[in-house]
Amino acid sequence: MAATVRLAARIERWPVAGAFIIARGAKTEVDVVVATVAEAESRGRGEATAIYYHGETAESVRDQILAMSGVIAEGASRADLLTLMPRGAARNAIDTALWELDARRIGLPVWRLGGLEEPKPVATAYTISLGEPEKMEADARATAGKYPLLKLKLAGEGDVARVAAVRCGAPEARLVVDANEAWTGRDVAAEAAALVPYGVELIEQPVRAGEDHLLDGVKSPIPLCADESCHDRSDLARCIGRYQAVNIKLDKAGGLTEALLLSKEARAAGLKLMVGCMLSTSLGVAPAFLAAQGAEWADLDGPLLLARDRPDGFRFEGGKMLNAQPTLWG
C-alpha cells in the first residue's frame, strides 16, 4: 500500500536589499509561501510569491495550498493540478514541490524527469529599480563588469531621461525596459522610437493588462513583450499580433508544468520568450531555471535583490546563473 502524501505550507519573510521600486510602489521585504509534500522519507518543496496585482496575498496563497491537502493525499499528480486548481502562486508552489518529490522518488534530476535537455548556465538580467535618472545611472554604474544585461523599471513620464542615464552609467550593457503598464494613454510607437538610440532591445508591458487592444496597429521599432497580459496558454490568443514576446513567470502560470506547455505554444505562434520571476529565493527560481533554457531573455535575479538567499541557493557569476544543486535541478 502506497504511503500517503502529506502537504504542508508556511509563510517566510525575506528582507530586500535596500528597496525594490517599480511604477506601482516599493518593497523592502517579501513574503514567500513554501509548500512541502512528503511521502515516507522523500520530500519536495516549492516556493511561490503572491501575485499582488491580482489580489493574492501570502495568507491567501497558503490557505489555498492547504485546501488541497485532501486531493494531494489521494494522489493528485502535477497534470491533475491543471484542472483541479486555478493558475497562480498556490498551484506553482504545489507543482514545484511535486516535481521535487517525483525526482527524489526515482533518483533523477528534474530536467531528466521532464524529458528536457541538460541545463546550462543562464545569463540573467539584473534589475535597476525605478528612480530619478541620477540614481538609476549610479545603480547602473555599480553593475559594471558584473551584469551584461540590465532591466530598467520605467514609469511613463521622464522615461527617456532614465534610459539615457542608465546607458551613460553602463555603456556596454544590453538593455531591456519594463513599463509596468505605465504607457497606457501614451503613443507607444513614439515612446519606443525615442529609446532606439540607446540600444533597448525589448519593452515589457507598455499598456494595462486587459487593454491590449490599444496596441492594435502599433508599429513599434522595438519588440513588445506581454507580462501582466500573459499568464498561461489561455492568454496567448489576445497577445498574438500585438506583442512579439511573452514573459513567462511560474507564479503567474501556476507552475513549471504549465510554463513548459506555454513555452511550446508561444514558440509555435512565433513569439520570443522571456522567463522572469517575482521577488523570491533560489528555491523559487529553481524551476524557472529549467524553463529559461533557450529563452531569448531571462530575468531571474529575484535572489540577487534580497538581502540574503538560502544557503543552498544558486551562484551568480559574470551575470550568469549557475546551479548549486546539480543532483536535483541541473
Secondary-structure topology with pairs:
Layout: E1 6-22, E2 25-39, E3 42-49, H1 58-66, H2 69-73, H3 78-84, H4 89-106, H5 110-113, E4 122-123, E5 126-128, H6 133-141, E6 149-153, H7 159-169, E7 174-178, H8 188-195, E8 200-204, E9 224-226, H9 236-239, E10 245-249, H10 250-253, H11 256-268, E11 272-276, H12 282-291, E12 297-299, E13 315-317, E14 320-322
Parallel strand pairs: 5-6, 6-7, 7-8, 8-9, 9-10, 10-11, 11-12
Antiparallel strand pairs: 1-2, 2-3, 4-14, 13-14
Protein name: Dipeptide epimerase
Domain Mandelate racemase/muconate lactonizing enzyme C-terminal: 133-225
Cofactor: Mg(2+)
List keywords for this structure.
three-stranded antiparallel β-sheet; 330 residues; Enolase-like, domain 1; 25% strand; TIM Barrel; 2 domains; single chain; alpha/beta; eight-stranded parallel β-sheet
The low-confidence parts are none
**Mean of the pLDDT scores?**
94
CATH architecture of the largest domain: Alpha-Beta Barrel
Question: CATH superfamily name of the largest domain?
Answer: Enolase-like C-terminal domain
CATH class membership of the largest domain: Alpha Beta
Structural class: alpha/beta
Q: Count structural domains.
A: 2
Order of helices and strands: EEEHHHHHEEHEHEHEEHEHHEHEEE
- Here the CATH topology of the largest domain equals TIM Barrel
Tally of DSSP helical segments: 12
Give an overview of the whole structure.
The protein has two domains: 102 residues, Enolase-like, domain 1; 201 residues, Enolase-like C-terminal domain (TIM Barrel, Alpha-Beta Barrel). 31% of the residues lie in helices and 25% in strands. The protein contains twelve helices and 14 strands. The strands form three sheets. An eight-stranded parallel beta sheet has the order 5-6-7-8-9-10-11-12. The chain has a three-stranded antiparallel beta sheet with strand order 1-2-3. A three-stranded antiparallel beta sheet has the order 4-14-13, with no helix packed on it.
